[in-house]
Design brief:
Glutathione S-transferase Yfyf (Class Pi), Chain A, domain 2; four-stranded mixed beta sheet; binds glutathione; about 200 residues; 4 strands; 2 domains; alpha+beta; about 10% strand; Glutaredoxin; 7 helices; globular
Length: about 200
């Protein structure tokens, strides 16, 4: 059986738990507390040299890390992985957008505000820029969703899972989603997909 190393508050981990649930795949969940450095131990670094969750151990013992790579691995051969060249590339396009233009701002601002009582002076300095870039990512999403029900091919897929994870908890980083009616409607569409689980749901 596959083993998922994860931290329940992580959106990156949630992406993987969400797809595993929607595919109906059995796995063992092993929680590692990132607040206590449990992904930075010598033992964990043998699993993922980058010291982060989510990390998935496959049935043959191979360790796979990076949430979006794990999503592709799990989705291959299922309806979640598009078959044609352009749709696959468009799915990757939004997943790279998520990792480069969305997650570093929205997830990090949420992490600082939601998981710590007080920001460090450096976080205080960096926060306004993170918020600005987070809102820029939300603007891009809003524009796309004005004309599209989902991110790619007008059907729910991996790009939606990747972007939903931190967008649906963006308010925990004090992002005001009421300004974004199309994003809000899309969040509801994703939440109503069969098998959708909440972020704190354990298998
Ligand atoms: N790009 C990676 C990011 C993974 C990541 O940043 N994981 C965080 C939790 S969301 C983590 O493990 N942090 C603990 C640490 O860096 O020590 C992915 O998508 O999986």
């Amino acid at each position: 059986m596959m083993t998922l190393y994860d931290f329940m508050g992580s959106g990156n981990g949630y992406k993987v738990r969400l797809l595993l649930a929607q595919l109906g795949l059995a796995y063992m969940l092993v929680e590692r507390d990132i607040m206590k450095g449990e992904t930075r131990t010598p033992e964990f670094l043998t699993k993922n040299p980058n010291g982060r969750i989510p990390t998935l151990q496959l049935d043959d013992g191979t360790f796979l890390f990076e949430s979006d790579a794990i999503l592709w691995y799990l989705a291959e051969g299922t309806a979640f992985a598009p078959a044609d060249r352009l749709t696959r590339a468009q799915t990757l396009q939004w997943m790279f957008f998520e990792q480069y233009s969305h997650e570093p701002y929205i997830a990090v601002a949420r992490f600082w505000k939601h998981f710590f009582d007080k920001l460090t002076p450096q976080q205080e300095t960096e926060l306004p820029e993170r918020m600005k870039k987070g809102y820029a990512a939300l603007d891009v999403m809003e524009q796309h969703l004005a004309n599209n029900a989902f991110f790619v091919g007008n059907r729910y897929g991996l790009a939606d899972i990747a972007l939903y994870a931190y967008t649906h908890v963006a308010h925990e980083g004090d992002f005001d989603l009421t300004r974004y009616p199309h994003i809000t409607a899309w969040l509801a569409r994703v939440a109503s997909q069969p098998g959708c689980i909440s972020m704190d749901h354990k298998n």
